[in-house]
Amino acid sequence: MKEIRVRWRRGQFDPEGREVTGSLWHPDTPINREIAERMVRAGEEVYGEGSHWIEERVA
């Protein structure tokens, strides 16, 4: 099964100093893909081109 998640780089850090860069993995279904693509577009509108992307893996 293929999974996707939205990744980003915005300079946010958790309490231990690690950069917060992504979301949870979800099955790569048409609706999840559409939601992820919308999240990427919205993130790039706010933080700039290349700030958000979709990552894929086989699980």
Protein architecture, described:
- By secondary structure, the protein is an alpha+beta fold.
- 31% of the residues lie in helices and 27% in strands.
- The protein contains one helix and three strands.
- It has one helix at 30-47; strands spanning 2-8, 26-27, 52-58.
- A three-stranded antiparallel β-sheet has the order 2-1-3, with helices on one face.
- The chain starts with a strand and ends with a strand.
- The mean pLDDT is 91.
Task: Summarize this structure briefly.
With about 60 residues, this protein is an alpha+beta fold.
Radius of gyration equals: 12 Å
Number of β-strand runs: 3
Uncertain runs are none
| Widest sheet, order of strands | 2-1-3
Spell out the key features of this protein.
single chain, 59 residues, alpha+beta, 1 helix
